[in-house]
Amino acid sequence: MDVSGYAAKPEAYDSLSAYQIAEFCNEHGLARDEIDHFAANLLGSPVSATPVQGATSYTVCGDKAGRVVQFRRSQLPMRKIEVARQIYEDFVPECKSQGMFGPVHVYVANLVPGPAFCRVRSQFFSPAPTMEQRLQQTVQDFARFFASAWINKPAHTLEPPPGLLGEYSKILDEVSPDLPAQLQAKLDDVRQELPRLFRSSYPMVLQHDDLLENNFHVDETTGHITGIVDWADAKIAPFGVSLANMEVVLGIQTRTNWYFHPNHHSLRKLFWKTFYRVTGYISKDDRRSIEVARLFGLFREHGREEKEHAIAYLSALCLL
């Protein structure tokens, strides 16, 4: 089954970006040409808007500089971004504060080459064999990215926010009621095993908490991930919670369902094979903890949506 048609086309992101830029300028009372002029002076070259924008920022790239300027509603957590660069290395672009421009915060970052995955996902999910080879590369790089957090633990222990276990339990309590029996059993298992994620021996790591298809870029000729952006919402959490986002390279979410790549089972095996090759030995107990964290992430992400949507998404993602 060809599922590529379920992916949004680049034109949809063009329209969304134009809307977001206009909203950002209106919200902060700024003229777009004045912002662009300020950015051009910072980079020493003309600038243009990047193809994918954010809901609370405006980003432009220099024509020659190999850098971007981002104007943001709120400050970035620079210390967390430094930690992210230590953990995930070249996956995270360098970023520096440039003060303020009127009411908004200004940052200069390295340009991440290649399109955001959202703009090429329909190509990568097409039936052509060459496209599946590129998607396989993306899957392997995604696995290496997640494995980086296991092998590059900071020298000092990262402390989670106080009460995080209670917060996670509350999230599971808020999952849509009256789930089908299989899903309810899976939810109960995750609830019962949550404390294993807070064992002193299990790592707390800094994780990207919004790792959607618009926040990582790829080389569209090879499938290699060239960088992961938008670390504004990075969080310290038990390792594996953000693994819920691995699904964005295995399938496509629509308003009502989740459509997997026809070969998602083999792609999933490739992901885990690559992950465990990079991490090296991980005990059976920790492997179970990783799975509990991943399932919790899925229930957190999709379990509190409207009942019929929650059941559709969770059935597809948790009952593989």
Automatic annotation (TrEMBL):
<dbReference type="Pfam" id="PF01636">
    <property type="entry name" value="APH"/>
</dbReference>
<protein>
    <recommendedName>
        <fullName>Aminoglycoside phosphotransferase domain-containing protein</fullName>
    </recommendedName>
</protein>
<feature type="domain" description="Aminoglycoside phosphotransferase">
    <location>
        <begin position="173"/>
        <end position="244"/>
    </location>
</feature>
<dbReference type="InterPro" id="IPR011009">
    <property type="entry name" value="Kinase-like_dom_sf"/>
</dbReference>
<dbReference type="InterPro" id="IPR002575">
    <property type="entry name" value="Aminoglycoside_PTrfase"/>
</dbReference>
